[in-house]
Amino acid sequence: MRVAGYQAPLLPSGSVEAIGLIAEQVKVCEAAGVEILCCPEAVIGGLADDSDDPDHFAIDVESGQLRTLLSPLASDSVTTIVGFTEAGADGRWFNSAAVFSRNKVVGVYRKMHPAINRSVYTPGAAADLFKVGGLVFGIAICRDSTFAELVQGMAARGASAVFVPTNNALAPAKGGADVVAQARQTDVQRATECGIWVVRADVTGRINGLESYGSSAITGSDGTVRQVARQFEPDLLIGAIDVRRRREYLVRPSRRDRAAIRHGVSRGPSMTLRNLDVVVLRDDLSSQGLKQGDLGTVVEVYGPDAVEVEFVTASGRTQALVTLPPSAVRAVGDNDLVAVRPVTSRDV
Description:
SH3 type barrels, Nitrilase/N-carbamoyl-D-aminoacid amidohydrolase, 16% helix, 8-stranded mixed β-sheet
């Protein structure tokens, strides 16, 4: 599978100019046979931590605002990962990345470690996996990639790659070439520890007292850096991932990691689950477009506390790949009747 990382120009706070720039890259990727395009952290609007008025560019997901904004990126062959500031409930903001595929927001990852010291962003709580074609992958926004256990958990659950939307725009005294070297070291460490590909997409340029050299790169599962972006220039990196040759990663998630990726669903009586068991979801998971009663298939059992369940549409397309406590699902009963329902635009 061909994947790409877009090193985008650093734009003024609140700017949505990146939409048009990314749309141009989508067309390039279509022509090059790329299936997944990763864009930088907060590439739309910029970082809320750098703004006096994040509400001006924060985007709501549930209302369909995000899907409308991303509609120029719609493609039948290219899935795009786009960083933005998410407007959450109760006035909260999340540093998020949307997975946009076939004109739908099929998933959203929220940054779990927003800043070293202080940030206006609320930390995310779930490290879901996504699947495009034959590639299962995770997302770790910028600083999240420095937390080895987070990426190890993704690899243990079957990820062959992790995409790292990044925004290293800093004051010159805090940034510089050292930031690029640190990012590269992190990518190599994660790749070699976990046997997965790492695709990082950063911003680049100077504006309003901030600068970013650009740390975009594609690192192979053996730790070899395959592609490196030009510093201080927009760039598009393209690499090919052989999803059939991922080095086996045998470490299972720790209890703390499983707790971090577990969805907040009600608990019922637990049961013994095995791979390929068909199960029924007990409660809605609106963030994944799932409803109570949806059928899923167990694809991995991590022990007594966590299972990986895949939910697919009637045509066979993966709707969601999520890690759940066994109590979040139940066995299929003799009185259960199978039915179908449409996945609506709000089911993201």
